[in-house]
Design a protein that fits this description.
The chain has 85 residues and is of the alpha+beta class. The chain is 40% helix and 14% strand. It has one domain (12-84). A three-stranded mixed beta sheet has the order 1-2-3, with no helix packed on it. The longest helix is centred in the middle third of the chain and has 14 residues, at 41-54.
Length: 85
């Protein structure tokens, strides 16, 4: 289930194509991929399964197919300076 780390910037669409086969379905409408981080069963239940289950069915039916990509983000130093200093 491990995807090799990417050193260069990659678009979300390109990353999704790389990991699409490894998506974990929550139900027919929601799926997720946790790349670069380990989620235990408790984390998955707390952060993914329970919030999805809490959606009212009338709202869930209005949403398109949802894919959650949980990946680490490491901004460059220039980005940090631009927004925080």
């Amino acid at each position: 289930m491990a995807v090799p780390p990417v050193k260069a910037r990659v678009t979300v669409a390109a990353y999704l194509e790389r990991v699409r086969a490894e998506l974990i379905p929550v139900n027919p409408q929601f799926s997720y991929f946790a790349g670069g981080t380990s989620f235990n069963d408790e984390d998955v239940r707390e952060y993914i399964t329970e919030p999805i289950a809490a959606l009212p069915p009338s709202v869930a039916t209005l949403l398109p197919k949802v894919i959650l990509l949980l990946v680490p983000y490491n901004p460059s130093t220039n980005t940090i300076r631009k927004y925080f200093f």
